[in-house]
């Protein structure tokens, strides 16, 4: 009887969870990938390391249980590191919970209003430019962290200050040791892909951090390590004083930047993950609601914001995950680690985490994409580069806005194809035919051609071939017709559609 009952129970479990074996194995892989990244993103963001684990746990268990994308994995992302670091520096750590909470509520609202699909309308060049700019700032900032020195606040300051920081490092054995640990970590991550297949079962980032930790401990290297406060010690729901910042316009702008960037990164990641598997595709509005729910919980806990993370998501797919159970279980493993082994974090050298983030920042820069765009569509390549440079030179929010404005202007320019054909038969009126879409963007060229026409001959301007004529163009053409004709000559005739 017992044997029969056990077999029946096993059959029922297999029926209810037919892919449990694959999902269990994939969850362990994703956990091992996520662990060093959660800690590294938190440290780079200027918050306690445990808060990165809290966000990873919420991303796995809360967001992971919700509908939207079945195989996409959420957690703290390198793409938001720069924004979080700036927000914490400007408004303080207690205000971070309010920012993340408001971000989550905005995402819930946008998802409920079916706005998730509209994020797919954002120019891919703007998103890639945003990620490239973030990558550059991350690399610059983490090079200072690897050296054990304080980085300048602005992105451009980080880059311009590198020569002086390098000169200072060459005169300090402690700084050179710290840099060596960071460089060694990057080297292990890069070279790990060339290891035999069995060795690659351990994620490169985890292997690099473990090796750096072991070397630092064995040789007692003078490098800084992660400060540990304990999981319960870092969870601090935002107090009433932090909500007072909502009256600050700069604070509201930061919330909008978080919501825009986190949502765009998550939904673009979803589109990329959908191309990696042939299972159920992402339902964008529900995925935005899932992200909003996760960020709302993170905000209540005072943790880091979350997005879908392509590194963890692709690892999940490659590891053979079939359902959302894999990402939920990865959150459970993070919770078990944070609850039982938090002191292990205190052994991790900060330069090793900086090396992990330098590699992650490098991966955010789409070098091949820029080269391909430059060959095929230089306008899009320019948008990508300008967005990236603007983020480095100004800040995240304004850099993205600059990219969006450029994208809209380019789209309007591309859409405003207009042809002006002038026919002069030598006798009778000169005939000018406009066709296509006449907008203010093409107006200077149109007026240059029309104003070059002789003023002592009758002119007919035929607008019947236009599909679109905006108000600025119409007004300018009417003004030109009124003032172009000289005395004694028939006035310019406008032949409307």
Automatic annotation (TrEMBL):
The chain crosses the membrane at residues 24-44, 51-71, 77-106, 118-145, 165-192, 204-226, 246-268, 288-311, 331-360, 381-409. GO terms for biological process: transmembrane transport. It is found in: Membrane. It is a multi-pass membrane protein. Keywords: Membrane, Transmembrane, Transmembrane helix. GO terms for cellular component: membrane. Residues 20-387 form the SLC26A/SulP transporter domain. InterPro entries: SLC26A/SulP_dom, SLC26A/SulP_fam. This is Sulfate permease, MFS superfamily.
């Amino acid at each position: 009887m017992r044997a029969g009952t056990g077999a029946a129970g096993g059959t029922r479990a297999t029926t209810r969870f037919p892919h449990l074996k694959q999902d269990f194995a994939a969850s362990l892989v994703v956990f091992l990938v996520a662990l060093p990244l959660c800690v590294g993103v938190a440290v780079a963001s200027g918050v306690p390391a445990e808060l990165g684990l809290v966000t990873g746990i919420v991303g796995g268990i809360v967001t992971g249980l919700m509908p939207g994308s079945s195989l996409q994995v959420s957690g703290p992302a390198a793409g938001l590191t720069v924004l979080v670091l700036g927000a914490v520096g400007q408004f303080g750590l207690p205000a971070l919970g309010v920012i993340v909470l408001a971000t989550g509520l905005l995402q819930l609202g946008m998802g409920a209003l079916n706005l998730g699909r509209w994020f797919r309308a954002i120019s891919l060049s703007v998103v890639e430019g945003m990620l490239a700019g973030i990558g550059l700032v991350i690399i610059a900032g983490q090079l200072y962290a690897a050296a054990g020195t304080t980085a300048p606040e602005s992105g451009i300051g980080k880059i311009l200050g590198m020569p002086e920081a390098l000169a200072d490092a060459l005169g300090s054995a402690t700084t050179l040791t710290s840099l060596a640990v960071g460089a060694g970590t990057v080297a292990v991550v890069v070279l790990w892909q060339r290891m035999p297949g069995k060795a690659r079962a351990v994620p490169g980032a985890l292997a690099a951090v473990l090796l750096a930790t072991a070397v630092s401990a064995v040789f007692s290297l003078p490098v800084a390590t992660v400060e540990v406060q304990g999981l319960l010690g870092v969870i601090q729901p935002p107090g009433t004083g932090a909500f007072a910042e909502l009256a600050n316009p700069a604070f509201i702008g930061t919330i909008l930047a978080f919501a825009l960037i986190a949502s765009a990164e998550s939904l673009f990641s979803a589109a990329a993950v959908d191309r990696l598997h042939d299972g159920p595709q992402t339902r964008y509005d529900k995925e935005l609601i899932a992200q909003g729910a996760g960020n709302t919980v993170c905000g209540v806990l005072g943790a880091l914001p979350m997005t879908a993370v392509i590194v963890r998501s692709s690892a999940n797919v490659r590891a053979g995950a079939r359902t959302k159970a894999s990402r939920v279980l990865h959150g459970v493993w993070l919770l078990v680690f944070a609850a039982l082994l938090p002191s292990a974090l205190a052994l991790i050298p900060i330069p090793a985490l900086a090396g992990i983030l330098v590699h992650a920042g490098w991966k955010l820069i789409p070098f091949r994409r820029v080269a391909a765009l430059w060959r095929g569509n230089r306008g899009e390549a320019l948008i990508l580069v300008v967005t990236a440079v603007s983020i480095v030179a100004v800040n995240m929010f304004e850099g993205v806005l600059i990219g969006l404005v450029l994208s809209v202007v380019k789209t309007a320019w591309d859409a405003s194809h207009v042809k002006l054909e002038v026919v002069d038969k030598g006798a009778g009126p000169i005939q000018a035919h406009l066709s296509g879409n006449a907008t203010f963007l093409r107006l200077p060229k149109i007026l240059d051609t029309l104003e070059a026409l002789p003023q002592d001959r009758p002119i007919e301007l035929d607008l019947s071939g236009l599909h679109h004529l905006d108000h600025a163009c119409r007004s300018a053409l009417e003004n030109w017709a009124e003032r172009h004709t000289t005395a004694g000559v028939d006035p310019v005739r406008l032949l409307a559609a």
